[in-house]
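Quick one, T. Sequence first:
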Amino acid sequence: MSAASVEQPFDHEEPVTLTTIADEIMERHPGYRVEIIEGHLLVTPSPDGAHARALTKLMRPFMAAGLDGGETEVLQGIGLWLPIEPEDYAVPDLSIVDADFEDHHVENNAYDPVCFRLVLEVTSTNWKNDLKTKVAAYAEAKVPVYVVVDRKHQRLHVLTDPAGDAYGSHRVHAPGETVSLPDTIGAKVSVDVAEILDAGNKRKSD
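C-alpha cells:
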C-alpha cells in the first residue's frame, strides 16, 4: 500500500511524540493507515476495492501451501518495528510471520522484524513509497523477502537478500510469467503475475 508524508497536523503546547500524533490521526480518521518511517509520518487513506481484491488473490496460494497454520501465519495489516529511528514502524499489506510472533511484540502493536519471513505491498496512488522508501526500510530490518504488486506499471517485484538499506536481488516480473517465491518463506509458492495484476485493476463498478 502506498502512503504520503505529512506534516504534524495538531497544535500542542508541548512537543509530543510521533507515535502520539499517529494515534490521534487514526482516531480522527478511522480506516486510515499511519506509519512512521525514518522519522516521518506516512498516512494512507482506506484502500480501494481492487486493492483488497488483489490481497485476497495473493493470500490463496500462501494458504493453499499450508503457510497459515503450523509454523507460520499469513496476516494482513500487522505492525513491523523498524530499527531506523526510535519510533519507526511500518504496516505491510500482507505478511508471513512465524507462529510465535506474539512473543516478539515490541510496542505500539508492532513486532520485531526477526519473526517476519515475507512482507508484501500492493501499490496505490503514491507508489514511489513502496518502490523506494519501504525497500530501504524493510532491507534495514532484514526482512528476507519483499514483494510489491506494482499496479502503476503492471509489474510484480520480488526483492531478496537484504544488505544495509537495499536488497541484493531485485527481480521484476511481467504479466505472462509465473513466479516461484523463495522457499525460505516456509513452503513452495508460485504466483501468476497476470492474475494478481488483473485482480488489482479497477473494474467499472469499483
